[in-house]
């Protein structure tokens, strides 16, 4: 959403007019509107919807968030000359929906309020006159749509519209259905509700909300399922360790106070040196204590339910934590190296054996999941560590040969450059990747140097040939270049399990 808003702010190519910035600065939670903008939208409301939809005086709003950033206006359209329908052809679907939302909210905030009639109906009945039953129905009727003329009338499952009924009117119910309801737990956070909570708690700023949400996903602390956040095993472990080692820093109040201190530095009410000194003194002590006292997550174990037993030696199982998350391990490790992946509930996940043969030993490959997504690992592990990856279509690709390290220096960090053969010929990249993303310019090398390294690369590739991946019946799945054969279009799930 923030990337989409950034594009609307930077400018959209409107046919015949060039690049047009459609919204004001978007990294703000201010509710302030410039007087010129308010006057313009009031004139627009009067022309478009009539006097009844225009209040007598402009409306002004205050933020409930004390930390709201008032340096900018509220997010609004830059000009009322560009209604959503006029620029729809120049926008993507996401851009159009976001711009329409901003437009509608801006116009609606200066319109007359809607009017509702609340209705409550009490219905008396029952089969026994001595113990009458009273049924209650509540609802409301929209009398005047007001700002809903722009934003649309909201609907919810617990709202209903009731017809006009006179007192003592006799009714014939279609049906009476008893319904049992249970208290539901609070809903899981979505991106929108998480940002709203961050704002209400005074954590972060509008300019940092997007990066906060991005970081917790990039580091696999949370995962999104149907647009809702779920904490991963890694996220829970990291949180527990941080709370144990730095309880004060992990408190919401501490973060909120730190935001206030930063505001004081900005307004010259506090000296930044004093603020840093107050923070780093206690923090350094806690950090040193954490290094000495904390137990590494990978060294900790948790007993698994008794019904889970080791399939190799029959011993009990324990939960351990690895780089890919929590898994089940034999309690006698390292005497027994049995391990099994688990699902979100900690239940053993069945091993998915595929019809792909390991290129190193010929054993069946097993579908596994790592931090970078699904892959195939040899069923003979740890005796064989063969690994295969998938392309974007879910087809197996052969492993590429290791790069050839040269004595050519990286232009950025002076580390040796690696030489590879690509679709467009040889190319050079830094051997310190990903710390350094420097690239060498092959085309600028002199002919003797090119010739030298071309021969070395050819010899290197001869020593490290690309294997042809086959299924368990010996049929090839990849060609001599390691690419999937055209006839092999099957997704990962289509591989036949091998008994």
| Unreliable spans | 488-499
Specify the biggest β-sheet: 5 strands, antiparallel
Q: What is the CATH homology-level superfamily of the domain at 2-108?
A: Topoisomerase I, domain 4
Could you give the distance between the termini?
Answer: 47 Å
Kindly provide the name of the CATH class of the domain at 2-108.
Mainly Alpha
Query: How many strands?
Result: 19
Q: What's the shape?
A: extended
- Estimated structural class: alpha+beta
Strand order of the largest sheet: 11-12-13-14-15
Element-level helix/strand string: HEEHHHEEHHHEEHHHEEEEEEEEEEEEEH
The CATH topology of the domain at 2-108 comes to Topoisomerase I, domain 4
Q: Assign the CATH architecture of the domain at 2-108.
A: Orthogonal Bundle
Please explain how this structure is put together.
α1 (2-10) crosses α4. The protein is extended, with a radius of gyration of 32 Å. Helix content is 28%, strand content 20%. The longest helix has 22 residues, at 272-293. The strands form six sheets. A five-stranded antiparallel β-sheet has the order 11-12-13-14-15, with no helix packed on it. It has a four-stranded antiparallel β-sheet with strand order 7-8-9-10, with no helix packed on it. It is α+β, with helices and mostly antiparallel strands. β9 (325-330) and β10 form a beta hairpin. The chain has helices at 2-10, 35-49, 84-87, 93-108, 148-151, 191-201, 206-218, 233-245, 252-266, 272-293, 447-463; strands at 12-14, 18-20, 115-125, 133-144, 222-225, 228-231, 302-303, 317-322, 325-330, 339-341, 352-357, 364-370, 373-378, 387-390, 396-397, 404-409, 416-422, 425-430, 439-440. Among the domains are: 2-108, Topoisomerase I, domain 4 (Orthogonal Bundle); 115-167, no CATH class; 199-294, Topoisomerase I, domain 2 (Orthogonal Bundle), CATH 1.10.460.10; 404-463, 2-Layer Sandwich (Bacterial Topoisomerase I, domain 1).
């Amino acid at each position: 959403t923030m990337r989409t808003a950034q594009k609307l702010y930077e400018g959209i190519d409107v046919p015949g007019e060039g690049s047009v910035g459609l919204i004001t600065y978007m990294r703000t939670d201010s509710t302030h509107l410039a007087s010129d903008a308010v006057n313009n939208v009031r004139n627009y409301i009067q022309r478009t919807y009539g006097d009844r939809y225009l209040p007598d005086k402009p409306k002004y709003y205050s933020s409930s968030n004390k930390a709201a950033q008032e340096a900018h206006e509220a997010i609004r359209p830059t000009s009322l000359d560009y209604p959503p329908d006029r620029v729809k052809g120049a926008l993507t679907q996401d851009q159009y929906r976001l711009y329409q939302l901003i437009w509608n909210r801006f116009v609606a905030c200066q319109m007359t309020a809607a009017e509702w009639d609340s209705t409550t109906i009490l219905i008396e009945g029952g089969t026994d006159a001595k113990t009458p039953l009273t049924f209650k129905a509540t609802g409301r009727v929209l009398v005047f749509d007001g700002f809903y003329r722009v934003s649309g009338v909201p609907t919810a499952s617990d709202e209903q519209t009731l017809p006009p009924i006179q007192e003592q009117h006799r009714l014939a119910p279609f049906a009476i259905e008893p319904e049992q309801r249970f208290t539901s737990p609070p809903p899981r956070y979505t991106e929108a509700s998480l940002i709203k909570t961050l704002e209400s708690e005074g954590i972060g700023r509008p300019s940092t909300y997007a990066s906060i949400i991005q970081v917790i996903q990039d580091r696999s602390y949370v995962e999104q399922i149907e647009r809702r956040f779920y904490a991963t095993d890694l996220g829970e472990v990291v949180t527990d360790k941080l709370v144990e080692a730095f309880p004060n820093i992990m408190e919401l109040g501490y973060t909120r106070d730190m935001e206030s201190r930063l505001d004081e530095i900005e307004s010259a009410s506090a000296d930044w040196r004093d603020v840093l000194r107050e923070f780093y003194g206690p923090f350094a002590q806690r950090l040193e204590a954490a290094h000495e006292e904390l137990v590494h997550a990978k060294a900790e174990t948790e007993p698994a339910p008794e019904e889970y037993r080791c399939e190799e030696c029959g011993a009990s199982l324990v939960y351990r934590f690895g780089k890919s998350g929590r898994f089940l391990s034999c309690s006698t490790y390292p005497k027994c190296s049995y391990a099994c992946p688990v699902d979100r509930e900690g239940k053993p996940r069945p091993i998915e054996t595929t019809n792909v043969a390991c290129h190193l030993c010929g054993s069946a490959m097993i579908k596994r999941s790592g931090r970078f997504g699904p892959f195939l690992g040899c069923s003979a592990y740890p005796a064989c560590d063969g690994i295969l990856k998938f392309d974007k279509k879910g087809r197996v690709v052969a492993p590429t040969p290791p790069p050839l390290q040269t004595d050519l220096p990286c232009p950025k960090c002076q580390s040796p450059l690696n030489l590879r053969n690509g679709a467009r010929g040889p190319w050079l990249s830094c051997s310190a990747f990903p710390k350094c993303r420097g690239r060498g310019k092959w085309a600028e090398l002199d002919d003797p140097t090119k010739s030298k390294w071309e021969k070395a690369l050819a010899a290197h590739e001869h020593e490290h040939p690309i294997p042809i991946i086959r299924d368990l019946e010996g049929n090839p799945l990849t060609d001599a270049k390691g690419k999937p054969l055209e006839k092999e279009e099957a997704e990962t799930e289509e591989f036949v399990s091998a008994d």
